[in-house]
Amino acid sequence: AAGVGELANGISDVSLAMFHMLEQLPLTTLTSSLAILLVLIFFVTSSDSGSLVIDSITAGGKTDAPRGQRVFWATLEGVIAAILLYGGGDAALGALQAGAVATGLPFTLVLLVMAFSLVKGLHEEQRSLVLAGVR
């Protein structure tokens, strides 16, 4: 079917759709600038959160790791993303997203084991409280 997957006026790129919508509103320059600023803030805070987690993991769980170590992880994260985007061409973003999903899959298994352990621990605690006559 013609036009399936296309946005208004044949726009096929989702990133352009927001700006096309903002063109229809008053104060186009202001709202477009604000949208770019908000997207930039989102990416910076997401990257900073990722760097904090990586830094905490590599520091053995310490939250007061050296600042240089956190800067190292943030820089390395940015360099790797830039290399992947530059070297991958048009399919780079899809590959980057697929890589993120593939990396997250093992953590899903860890979370399932943790959930099972939590339920098991809660059942044990409830049983010990019942045997002690607390409940």
Question: Can you describe this structure?
Answer:
The protein has 135 residues and is mainly α. The protein contains four helices and no strands. The radius of gyration is 23 Å and the shape is elongated. α3 packs across α4. Helix content is 76%, strand content 0%. The chain has a domain at 1-54. The protein has helices spanning 14-23, 28-58, 67-88, 92-131. The longest helix has 40 residues, at 92-131.
SSE succession: HHHH
Major sheet description: none
Estimate the global geometry from the Cα principal axes.
elongated
Q: Helix/strand/pairing class, anyone?
A: mainly alpha
Q: What is the end-to-end distance?
A: 65 Å
User: How many helical stretches?
Assistant: 4
Report the count of strand segments: 0
Low-confidence stretches: none
Beta-strand percent range: under 5%
Oligomeric form: single chain
Q: How helix-rich are the residues, as a percent range?
A: over 70%
Q: What is the averaged pLDDT score?
A: 81
Topology, element by element:
Blueprint: H1 14-23, H2 28-58, H3 67-88, H4 92-131
